[in-house]
Amino acid sequence: MCQQHPPDHQPSKSQDGTSSSSKQPFPWHLGACDAHCHPTDTMASIASIPSMRARALTIMATRSQDQHLVSSVANDLGVVRHRESLLSAHRDAPCAVIPSFGWHPWFSHQLYDDTTTTSTSTTTPPSSLTTYNPGDTTTATDEDLLAAKKAHYATVLTPSPDDQAFISSLPTPTSLSSFLSSTRSLLTSHPFALVGEIGLDKAFRLPRPWEEHHSNSRPDSAGANSLNPPSRDDTLTPGGREGRLLSPHRVRPHHQQAILSAQLRLAGDLGRPVSLHGVQAHGLLYDTVAACWKGHEREVVSRRKRRMDAAQAQGPEESDSEEDATETTEAGGKPFPPRICLHSFSGSVEVLKQWFHPSTPADIYVSFSTAINLGTDAGKSKLPEVIAEVPKDRILVESDLHRAGEDMDAALEDMYRMVCEIKGWGLEDGVRRIRENYETFIFG
Ligand SMILES: [Zn+2]
């Protein structure tokens, strides 16, 4: 998920500027899958999913407004109930949907942490919020709620906001425990659903409220010639940034960690894979995830370690995932997720090596998108060496786009082509390999 909607994809041109038509046709029939995307941000695009050329979309939920949308889209388009249903899908089978339920770090301030088992818990629930019931207006007065919101947001945001209008514009926080409970229900009713999008983000700042934006851009409220978006785009699911200006306020990392850790535990308990977001927080993200598997690290066998060292010295390709996978595929009951996808991974090769240390008890996957990984010159320049470093059985491709349809297919195709080129794979071989990686990531 990116803070600004990427510009529309141009299917006629690939990333190196050459015409797609001059290239080998893309082998869609082999099953290209999208490991991470957000089409429920543009509900009108959902109708195009069955006719997409991709074999499967992994649709992320991120906030209060989209959990039920992801669930209903998965129900409407057919819940995938067996690995075989993807494996055996013929070339004309409609694109499948794998739902994913989670709370994104950009919205972590909207939850207060009322769990007691987390060591990173920072916020005590404001007393007015613990008794607040939106359906019962007698439980708290408006003043109580405003005071509670002020106390909560002062705790979880930095700098602490003192602007009354800004605080008023923020939603009344809801409890982490109730979110975990409803997410558990969704995961139970969707047997192959993931947990995501979850993670940490030190770069993100909260957008300014719409009201403030309006008054800035339309002081006379007639709004005839505002330069910025004059109002919400009703075709987009509420809650996103939608081009609003940014406030200076960020969510404190400690609070983000508490929200992330609770969801990692839920994923571990139910044995579900996760899709992980990390921006300008690679070390902290690793430390937070590693804390949940502390005491469960894999024992590194010396013979195996020698083999790994030798493989690393020669090249980056091989991992011992076949051997490892047998250790981690039994479902649930652990404090850490069995499989983790570092989505639109923007870290360095050194960060990658940390995740792929042989003692890591979860199976790590790494996914790349044109929207994020090719969005900046810095990202573009380091991408080849990072892709080269990812073990061949752990690489995935995603769009991270907010609208389903042809643009999503085109973005996937471009990244598939790029990965295949960097890995030295023929297109058919590469698409087949990545589909197998995707199936193992989703189904274990
Ligand atoms: Zn995303």
Describe the structure.
This protein has 444 residues and is an alpha/beta fold. It has two domains: 29-110 and 177-204 and 254-443, TIM Barrel; 119-175, no CATH class. The chain has helices at residues 67-77, 83-87, 127-130, 142-156, 164-169, 176-189, 210-217, 253-270, 282-292, 302-314, 321-328, 349-355, 370-373, 377-389, 406-423, 427-443; strands spanning 33-37, 56-60, 96-101, 111-112, 157-158, 174-175, 194-201, 250-251, 274-279, 339-342, 363-368, 395-397. It has an eight-stranded parallel β-sheet with strand order 1-2-3-7-9-10-11-12, with helices on both faces. Strands 4-6 form a two-stranded parallel sheet. The protein is globular. The two termini are 24 Å apart. The structure holds zinc ion. Residues 1-11 have a biased composition (Basic and acidic residues). Pfam families: TatD_DNase (PF01026).
Tell me the strand percentage band: 5-15%
Main pleated sheet: 8 strands, parallel
Helix content: 25-40%
H and E string: EEHHEEHHEHEHEHEHEHHHEHEHHEHH
Task: Please tally the β strands and state the result.
Answer: 12
- Low-pLDDT runs of 5+ residues are 4-21, 212-227, 320-329
| CATH fold assignment of the largest domain | TIM Barrel
> Under the CATH scheme, which class of the largest domain?
Alpha Beta
Number of helices: 16
The hetero compounds bound to this protein are: zinc ion
The whole-angstrom Rg is 22 Å
* N→C terminal distance: 24 Å
What structural class should be given to the helix and strand makeup? alpha/beta
Output the CATH homologous superfamily of the largest domain: Metal-dependent hydrolases
Domain tally: 2
Strand order, sheet with most strands = 1-2-3-7-9-10-11-12
Shape: globular
Which CATH architecture of the largest domain? Alpha-Beta Barrel
Q: Report mean pLDDT, rounded to a whole number.
A: 84
